[in-house]
Amino acid sequence: MHTQTNDARPRAALIKRNTLRLGYWTLAWVLSMAVAAFGPKFIWDFHTLPTVTAILINLGIGVGMILANKQHLQGLDELQQKIQLEAMALSLGVGLVGGLGYSLLDTTKLISSDAEISHLVILMSLTYLGGVIAGNRRYK
Amino acid sequence: MKNRLKVLRAERDWTQAQLASELDVSRQTINAIETGKFDPSLPLAFKAARLFGQSIEDIFQDEAGA
Known about the structure:
The complex is a heterodimer of chains A (140) and B (66). Chain A has helices spanning 9-42, 48-75, 78-107, 117-138. Chain A is mainly alpha-helical and 140 residues long. Chain A has two domains: 1-76; 78-140. Chain A is flat and about 50 Å long. Chain B is mainly alpha-helical and 66 residues long. Chain B has a two-stranded antiparallel ribbon with strand order 1-2. Classes of the chains: A mainly alpha (140), B mainly alpha (66). Chain A binds chain B through residues 1-2, 4-12, 77-80, 82, 136, 138-140, and chain B through 12, 14-15, 17-18, 20-22, 24-29, 31-32, 37-38, 40-41, 44.
């Protein structure tokens, strides 16, 4: 046993493999989202069949990404899972409160522009990222 | 919760990385347990106890009850 000097090799290898897999799924999902969003206007002139196909592919890849994320989380050790859980809880809370507040600003005409879902996604992503960084610092 | 993980590890001249490898967790987790920032789950505590050949109570002590 005690010849090993690197950090928990089997788990580190598993995490690396799962992270790479999650990265590939996420990249594929983002690309399929781009195709579904911009394809109708720039590629196939709003024909229904390719649009529906692109959306179905996007949803299918999205399911794959969710499963890859689940697998990634299950591969982490208990402290890493705790850090992820706290970051996701923070992201969900900020997303819910911030998102509904933002929507209220729109519906009550306190802001001139429409509330965009992309702003909510950015808010939740940044909150999640901040939560993971803060968690890693806390348990450093 | 206090623990003697650092002492037991030092007695065997193991690094945090070596102990992490034995317990199948990250070095960060070993460090967080040793510094009292994180309390391990029961399965991990049992695993540590088996590894060091001691009972859980010999390694981990509840500060409130101490």
